[in-house]
Amino acid sequence: MIRWQNLWRFIPLFGLMMLLLTGCGDETISALRPRGPVARDQLFLMKLSFGIMLLVVVVVFVIYLYVLVRFRKKKGDKDIIPKQVEGSHTLEIIWTVVPIILLLILAVPTVKYTFQLLEDHRDNKDALPVKVTAHAFWWQFEYPTLGISTAQDLVIPTGKKIAFELTASDVKHSFWVPSLGGKMDTNPGLTNVYYLQADEIDTFKGKCAELCGASHSLMDFKVKSLDAAAFDQWVADMKTPSTVPADAKAGETLFKDNCLSCHAVNAQGLGAGPNLNGFASRELVAGILPHNEQSLRDWIKDPQSIKPGAKMPAFGENPLEPIPGSKPLQEQQINDIIKYLNTLTVK
């Protein structure tokens, strides 16, 4: 049996494990694997600052160890007071000038890239404007020049700059796609601007990077980059109304009676809840659940049990946190709504 006083020996092992585990995770949410020009510039600045800090640490420790060894008390030395040095102009100049030089090495490219990011946003008339509105706890994306809006899945053309206008409807959030660039705050009543660009056709994960409430950690979204032709086709499909088959008409009626006051199902629609146009083509439900009938059923019945603090009312019986005014639906009615939602496709 291990004695308690010997447990301190495991501390280095735990420290090593923590260090190794920090390298585990999804590469699509890593700022160390840039997939666009903004992310690459920011990674360069991170490497530069880390290199400067590492240089300072190494130099300080080398000097420290040299002094520790060189001027240690040796066997046979008498207890004498070393020569007292009040100051050295040479050393004072060195440790004043060197930090200034290091700060300039870091400051010049940082200022350059910061202003370049702002100027690129202002001057690039060919950039695709996208307005992002953060809600608790979901994301709304509007394409004002294309006349469409969507939620949770942000679709962009590859190789084209995207000029973002960021705001929030309730509390402070933060828009962050690690593979494409750093985070930018979204504030109620204010608009922040910056741009991103994806160089590859791929899907990237985005997150809210500002503690915003009970389901902050579940406020995820996806960014899909498509080639120009595929993006144009997606825009056209978003503007084409979905055909509702006869066996989904009952669900459409139930949806209009219970959900349409918050959820739009057309190209430009905006509401208190996410626009569900093209919903059946999304890979996730509520941004976090796999897209299948069981996930949809669980979400419709009791959203608060999945995303605490969500504003969507619960339509199932005996929800975790009943919302005044919400009315339960029968199991068959929920199934009919699910069938209708699965007709809202984008090719």
Automatic annotation (TrEMBL):
EC number: 7.1.1.9
Function: Subunits I and II form the functional core of the enzyme complex. Electrons originating in cytochrome c are transferred via heme a and Cu(A) to the binuclear center formed by heme a3 and Cu(B).
Location of the Cytochrome oxidase subunit II copper A binding domain: 125-237
Domain Cytochrome c: 246-345
One Pfam family this sequence matches: Cytochrom_C
NCBIfam families in alphabetical order: CoxB
Keyword Heme (UniProt): yes
Record field: transmembrane: 49-69, 90-108
Names of the cofactor(s): Cu cation
One GO cellular component term: plasma membrane
The record's free-text note on cofactor binding: Binds a copper A center.
Annotated protein name in UniProt: Cytochrome c oxidase subunit 2
Family: Belongs to the cytochrome c oxidase subunit 2 family.
Catalytic activities: 4 Fe(II)-[cytochrome c] + O2 + 8 H(+)(in) = 4 Fe(III)-[cytochrome c] + 2 H2O + 4 H(+)(out)
Domain Cytochrome oxidase subunit II transmembrane region profile: from-to ranges: 23-121
Localization (cell): Cell membrane; Membrane
Taxonomic lineage of the native organism: Bacteria, Bacillati, Bacillota, Bacilli, Bacillales
Annotated GO MF terms: copper ion binding; cytochrome-c oxidase activity; heme binding; oxidoreductase activity
UniProt entry tagged with the keyword Transmembrane: yes
Biological process according to GO: ATP synthesis coupled electron transport
Keywords, sorted A to Z: Copper, Electron transport, Heme, Iron, Membrane, Metal-binding, Respiratory chain, Translocase, Transmembrane, Transmembrane helix, Transport
Membrane topology: Multi-pass membrane protein
